[in-house]
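Changelog-linked ticket: coenzyme A example.
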Amino acid sequence: MTETKIKYGLAGVVTDDTAVSKVMPETNSLTYRGYAVQDLATQCRFEETAYLIWNGELPTKTQLEAFNAQEKANRGLTDNMIAVMRRFPKGAHPMATLRTGVSFLGLEDKEIEDHATDKLYERAISLYAKIPQIVATDFRLRNGKEPIGPDASLGFSENFFHMCFGEVPAPEVVKCFDISMTLYAEHSFNASTFTARVIASSLSGIYSAVTGAIGSLKGPLHGGANEAVMHMLEEVGAAENAKAWMLDALATKKKIMGFGHRVYRSGDSRVPTMTDAYKEMVDIIGSDEANKYWNMSRILDETMVGEKGIYPNLDFPAGPAYYLMGFEIPMFTPIFVISRITGWTAHIMEQLGDNKLIRPLSNYTGPAQRDVIAMADR
Ligand code: COA
């Protein structure tokens, strides 16, 4: 018998081609459809990046206007959906309610079995338009407030703030959010994207694939790190404590949330852009709390890099940035979904464009084949 070489966790295994994004560990960089993610984040609105991820090219002004009109036309949840959301158990995690919300959208879609590319694209836009409202509605209902519907006069990011808080914050705050949307949008074959492709490959449909991807992202080893970063900052409590806290955490071999990356070993190209936007927002907010989290972040970063040479990942600046925007900590991963729906659905379309059922092999380690003994003789 030939010896089976198992790649646990599929580490290092290339399972398919993709034209959506490229992760380059040697330069710690990431491109979407050939464009450096930091250039997209600073020079384009998230809507342009979403168009690029799905269509392969940046939009012209006319194409962007048509695309935005299509997104706006798809905003809005049915009364039935909102009635169901009102009955969600109080205390359920927002990622769990989002998972159920997206699954419910699938129940409402009468053409769910149609896998034609144009139908998939229409559904991708519909999910991109509706997921922010599911997140915002859930946030308001869990806080005893009535949902606020979308406003067609507002852009994608502005509309999300409006649906959460009934107002749109300063442009620097919206810009910081919009930049985070672009930076989180796509990251090749990570666990949730691969989950989406596996489910899509059985022709189960886009809602099943996205629901599964949300389930995968929910796990703390994947999407939950931005929430964990904020819990860490709350534990540190003050900038004066930050260095001693970090030294103690390292001495006791704690995993420091928001640092390190499986692929990027000497810095994550998304971090400087997100950190700059976070700082710009802190300066505009100007509160003691905003400065406290900024100063704490800087000291933790310097200490970690100085002591261990381990660099922050995108979750490190994104966690406190979302907190200062007014979002509750359990909303951080659902906010990640608002962005990543673009990457997931691009991969689902790519998978179904040249589909082959994903079905790996396993190395059996159970008992050898044996005979069933009749019940009376057992
Ligand atoms: N805090 C403390 N030490 C860390 C660390 C962290 N965040 N990340 C890596 N290290 C240490 C490891 O303990 C290991 O030390 P050792 O050689 O003394 O055992 C060394 O750095 C190499 O790390 P490695 O285990 O090869 O990293 P990995 O590829 O298995 O893990 C992560 C990558 C992302 C899972 C890991 O860095 C981590 O858990 N980070 C915190 C969670 C996080 O921010 N996740 C979001 C990722 S985008």
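Closing comment: Example verified and attached. Strands lie at 21-24, 29-32, 35-36. The mean pLDDT is 95.
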